[in-house]
UniProtKB/TrEMBL annotation:
It is a multi-pass membrane protein. The chain crosses the membrane at residues 74-94, 126-150, 185-208, 214-239. GO terms for cellular component: plasma membrane. It comes from Batillaria attramentaria. The keyword Transmembrane helix applies. Keywords: Cell membrane, Membrane, Transmembrane, Transmembrane helix. It holds the Pfam family XK-related. It is found in: Cell membrane; Membrane. Belongs to the XK family. InterPro entries: XK-rel, XK-related_scramblase. This is XK-related protein.
Amino acid sequence: MYYGWRCRTRQNDKTKYDSVATTPACLRLLESFLESAPQLCFQLYVVFRGVDDESGGTLLFNAGVNTDSDTFSMLRWVVIFSSWVTLGLSTVMFRKIVTGNYYYKSTIPCHVLYFLWRVCETGGRVLCIALFASTFEFWVFAVLGPHFLVMFLWNVWAEEEPVMIMCYGYMMLFYMPFHSDPSRYAYFVYYVIFYTENFLLLGLWAGMTSDRDAWFYIPGIVTVIVFFILHIVMLFLYYKVAHPKAKTITYCEKWDWERVRKSLKSWSLV
């Protein structure tokens, strides 16, 4: 009885400590998005906003920095790629810490598919933002501002911790950081908003930009569409074959407004 009581006590302590450990994990995730997401958007913006000089080269904001050299071009794309990968890895590490603490141990295929899901999600998002900003500049905040406000109010309604509401609202500019139980309804609402904004940004840019003859016009549109398709495919593959609870997940379910309300209001970290 004594050792049984000790074991139970230690398990309760472990649960408490694991719960506390999620806060610094969340802060590390936020730090990654505060650093890498704006940098990725800015680097792509610089690529799309190159200004021609008299010699036909490209000057970085007319500051006399020639960006047409092979070394500079390679370095720039390395930075862009590393920022993009960093965002994906940060989401995987956060999920690994949280799910490992609370419910189950994830497998390598689970991490790989989760990583592909998230990089496709964030990649298409930052590309839409950068393309739109390259033509409309600060008008991009006319879309991101209301999105942040909606996500902020969503988290207020979900009764999140006051300190974290702003953090969650910011991260939800780029991806859905947390899951609810059941998660399908929250994902549905979020991704309807998310992709409506993405295709609004892309459509306005494609229809009104003066860069229709630029090298990135067609590739930019195609890449956003490909990211969208891959994101949806990876999302379904993850829940179908890689999620630790894949065998218990039902995919056709009657629409239940009470479950919808619970999904939108009851956040969890898995």
